[in-house]
Every structure is written in structure tokens, then in C-alpha cells.
Amino acid sequence: MPGVRLPFQCVVCKTRTNPKNRRKINSELKQLILKRLPIELKDTDVLCNKCRIKHFYKLSPVENFDNKLIDQSDNEEYQPPVSKKTSFASPPSVRLNIPSTPKSHSRCFICKRPGPKLIVVPSEARFTAFVQRNVIIKSGTRCCPVHMDESQIKDEALQSVKASESAFVNRAIVLELLNKLRASCNKTQKRFDFNTLNNEEYVDLTGLNKEAIRDIFAGVEGRIRNTPVRDILTTVGIFFFKLKSGLSNTILSIIFGISKSSVRRAIATTRQTLKENFLPLNLGFNHISRQKVINQHTRQLARSLFVDEAGDSSRLILVLDGTYIYIQKSQNHHFQRRSYNMHKGRPLVKPMVIVTTSGHYMSVLGPYLSDEKNNDAKILNHIINTNVEDIKSYVHPGDIFVVDRGFRDSLQLLEDLGIQSKMPSFLPKGETQFQTEVANTSRLVTKNSLKTEIEESNLDKSRAVWVPVSDTDLEDFPRLTEDILRTLTCGVYQLKLCPGYIQEHLEGDEDIRVHKERSGLIRVRLQSRHVSAKQYNLWIKFNNYEILGWYCKCRSGSRIVGMCAHCAAVIWYLGYGKHRFLGALGVRDWSEYVDDASVVPPTVDSSDSDSD
Question: Where does the Transposase IS4-like domain lie (predicted)?
């Protein structure tokens, strides 16, 4: 019958549909059909897939299926619909001149290794790679877990990726990047984020590398909570940035974009959490066993120098010294007097630092006041007498304490406990240089052969045997590496002073002389860095392969385990510096920007002029 639809007949084209080609009419389709067709719809009516795609998926709702327009010319109230601009769909891909990584589900896009243990690169990591490296990593790209550092890709892994010169992206990728860029720019008042810093930036801001900060973060995670303005990593970073920079909380609040009270709470929370959960596991005599210190944190050089009996592996060697923490001037007059240090001329407190010969921190005790009642010796006596951290049970008779001359008043107490003390000798009154035996005892050696050669042959007094050096005289001087230099100087302190000594030597009266008859022996006159009127003569003996000996006329120049800074400067320059640095050594003279009152231009007496 006309007007009656058969079961499962399409309401548009009137064709009978099969189950695969049949589509139910939802509420949205129902509204579109009623706008276009003057029919009544039942709940059982269906639509064929062809009509659904043809008419209701691509066509505008204002179009009529029969292409017939109703004549509204006689209708005075009729208003024609406002024409809408047709919105064109974006192309499936757009080529951008931005490097892009290859996309692979079966292989790592970094090292090209096959699965199966691959992970999908998180969206945060893909966004960070785009912002910091200008590289697009497509969604669904996979990599090995070893290339990830939590939710970010490691810098060295990302640098090794071979990216194409351009990227084909679709609308979804572009919108995702734009939304994340917008969200990143709209972060209220946040200056920088610790989650996006690289290793060098971590060191510059906190003094610790990224791995160390992550280890500390793992130790406090779960004990410090996130807040709306800072996460756990930012809280820990603020604390170490405060220790590194010493800036006020007001300036830190400006840098991090949070209130001053939030900075204060972050510092207090981190300090208390580290004190309760991190320090007991990493500092103090209880955090490491005595035998582990002897086996793993005692250098063989220290054993050779300080242990008398060969093969004695039961002795503990510790290095003790007091250091300074500068503080502000207190309004409490009593504390102000007790914390003012006459030697430094400013208020400070003094922690006592105890380390092993490898540099491992055993404990930091105190801090103590800094007046005359709290020198290094009295602090050590207090530590032992009060048995701080049960130190008497940790150290045994026969152990060795390496101390400086400030502990001279503690030597008797250490001797009573059976502890051997190793302390440099004092310079006798009226002497300008330690005797050979005393200097060697301070450095625990037996003989300086070059000094003996210089003194017995009167090479320090004879001038005729020394001639100015030529370019060919130093060609046989051995080239040295930084490791060899550190071995010769037994540390880095002297090496840090070398550029300053050499810069002044090269700019002044350079005086390097060689012996006429003895090859491989030079004499150098070097300016003192403390006294303008004092210069030191030093001698260095060498062959083509190594440094054979050194001797200087300065106070500590006769030692051969380590060396004074004067000998170190000459050896550093001839064996390393002049081959590495061309021209200036990086030491700048700032006196050109400062006036000198002693420099007065000569005055002209007008009475003696030619006109008179």
C-alpha cells in the first residue's frame, strides 16, 4: 500500500536493508531527518548505510533531499537563513620543516633494537623533546626502558637519534602541541621547573648533579607531599638552591614564582625530612662499619705513608679539620660575642668535619661557637670527652688521626687513648725554611736527593754555571697529563694556583735558566704571591719521560711527597700548560679598573719655564 514502509526499509531511499547494511536512527539522526523530510518516524525505523553517509555525514543540514525549495515569496514573516561558510576538512598530513623521528612499534626508535620489552614514549617526553630539542616524536613511538629517566628521555639518548629533516603531521598532532604549549605558557608565575633542567643546570643551581638530586628525591618521596604551587622535586630543589646560593627567601619567592611563606615551608620541610630519614643513612659514625671504611675508603698512598708495620690492615685513618659557616650578626649580644671570630673578622659557627683519606664523609659534628674557647683542639677534646656519636667505641688504639697545627693541644689526649696523631711540624724561631729531616717528617719521607745535589755542588750560589734557556733546551721536557700532575702534587690545591703564578711570571721578568753541563736541570726564579719584595729560586730535574726531582727555597719547598705551589706551577706550565693554552691563561689583571694613589704624575714648576 502507498505510504506504508516494509519492515527494515530505509526511510530515505525505500530500499530493503540487510542486517549488515542497516543502521538504527539515533536521536541526532532523527532530528536531522525531521528537518529535511516531512515524514513520521517510528522507533523501529532504520536507515541504510549508503543514505547515512551520503546525506547525513557529508551534507549540510540546510540541504533538502528532494532538491525542492518551498516557495516563501508570499510569506511576509519569512526570513531567509543566514548562509554559513563551508568548513573544509584539514588534509590528512602537513609537511613541516621540523626534524622528526621515525615511528616504529616493533623496534626502539633510538637504538633500533627489536622488542618485546619496549614502552610507548609518554606525551610529556614527546613535548619536552619538541620544546628543548625541536624534534617531533610521533604518538605511539616506542623505545627501550633504558633510554628513559622516569617520564623523560635521557639527554644522551635523544642526542643520538637520527631525525629526518621534515615531519608529516596531522591535525591531531598540531592541536596537541598547541594545547600543551598554551598550557605551558599559562603556568602562573612559574619561572622554571626542576623537572625540565639538564645535568649542567642542576649543578649550577644546586651544586649537585641530576643523579644525586634524584637519589635524594627517592629518599624523601612519600614523606613530602605535593602542593598546588610546588611538587616534591621543586621542594627539594628550593632547599639545595638556598644552600648553594645563600639568597634570601624574598628573592627565592620571585625566582620560583611562589610566596615567601611557601619558600620558608619548603626549606623547613625538606631540612626536617632529610634530618630524620636521609642523614642517619649517609652521615655519622653509625652509617658505615669500621671495617668497610678500612677496606673501601682508605687510599693505598695513606697506608704507605702512615702505617708503620707492613701489611697491617686493621688501622683506621681519619682526617679531622674545623671549617666555617658564616652567619648574620645576631641581635643577642651574648651570642654575638661568642660567635664573632677574631681571625676571620666576622660572625660564624664552626662544624668539625671528619673524613676518610678517600674523601668519604664520616661525620660532621657541631656546629660550635667560634670564640677563643672553641678552637680546633678544644672542640676535639669536647668531642672525645663527651663521647659524641660513641666515637670512643668506633676508634681503637693504634688508629691514626691526621690533623693540622691547630690541634696541638689535643695531642696529649689522643696519646692517652692510644691514637697516633700526624701533624705538620712547626717552623723554629729564626728559621726561614724547615730542615730537610723536619720537612721530610712532615711529609713522611726520608730524603730529597735533588736538594742534597744542589747544596753539595753549591749550585744555589754559583751563577756562572746557569745560562738563559733557549727554545731547544726544553724540548725534552716530558708532556704530562692531569692525572700525572695530581699524582705529583698529591691533590689539586697547588694546581689551582698554577695559572696565577705563571701569568705573573710571563708578564714580568721571566727567568728560566739551564745548567751548562748537566742536562735536564733548570733553575727558575718565581715571584711570591704574598710578598712583593720576595722571590724564590727553585730547581727541577727531568728526563725525556718523567720528572726526577724538585727543590724550592720556600718554607715547604724541600718536600718530595707532594710539592710546593712554586714547583707545581713550573712543572704544570712546561709539561702541560704551554701545550694546551695559547696566549693568556685565563687570569685577568683587574688593577686597570682601580685607581692607584701611589701613582702621581710629575708636576711642572712654572718658575723654571722657558718664558721666565
Answer: 314-437
